[in-house]
Design goal:
Number of strands: 11
CATH class: Mainly Beta
Structural class: mainly beta
Order of helices and strands: EHEEEEEEEEEE
Number of domains: 1
Number of helices: 1
Largest sheet: 6 strands, antiparallel
CATH topology: Jelly Rolls
CATH superfamily: Calcium-mediated lectin
Length: about 150
């Protein structure tokens, strides 16, 4: 299911057709090492579950292969309801790029949150990503659980 996004995302960002106006305020560049790629494989769907454990404002934003925002969840106005993709009926995987953002309380500016894989299955049928918004390195400020389903 998941792969690292760095190489393919770098190629996408280097193309002339991509705008770098990303993030909650549509005004931030994307950091490759803070972005994770998920794939919806042919014949499958993807279920995403969201959680937040932060006092500061945090958002998880999912982009499609063209870096258009397709989904946003947060610990404020958009909530954390689950999302299930349509079944991939095509011959190739559908690529999604996962980012998380936090509002810095010191300067009121959005910044992209680093992530780490906190749990995953052997067959990669599920993966959990934790995002960090400060310096305590608990990686639970924003959490995404992605599960491949039929």
């Amino acid at each position: 299911m998941p792969t690292t996004a760095e190489k393919t995302l770098k190629d996408l960002l280097n193309s002339n057709s991509v705008s770098l106006a990303l993030g909650p305020n549509k005004n931030n560049p994307i950091e490759l090492d803070h972005t994770f790629e998920l794939n919806i494989h042919p014949g499958f769907r993807l279920k995403l579950q969201f959680g937040f454990n932060a006092a500061n404002e945090n958002s998880i934003i999912i982009y499609n292969n063209e870096l258009s925002e397709i989904l946003k969840r947060d610990n404020r106005s958009n909530g954390n309801s689950d999302w299930i993709s349509e079944k991939n009926t095509g011959p190739t995987p559908i690529r999604l790029f996962v980012t998380a953002w936090n509002l810095n309380p010191q300067n009121n500016q959005w910044r992209q949150s680093p992530y780490k894989v906190t749990s995953q299955s052997n067959g990669l049928s599920f993966i959990q990503l934790g995002f960090e918004d400060w310096t305590d390195n608990d990686y639970d400020d924003a959490v995404l659980l992605a599960q491949t389903i039929q």
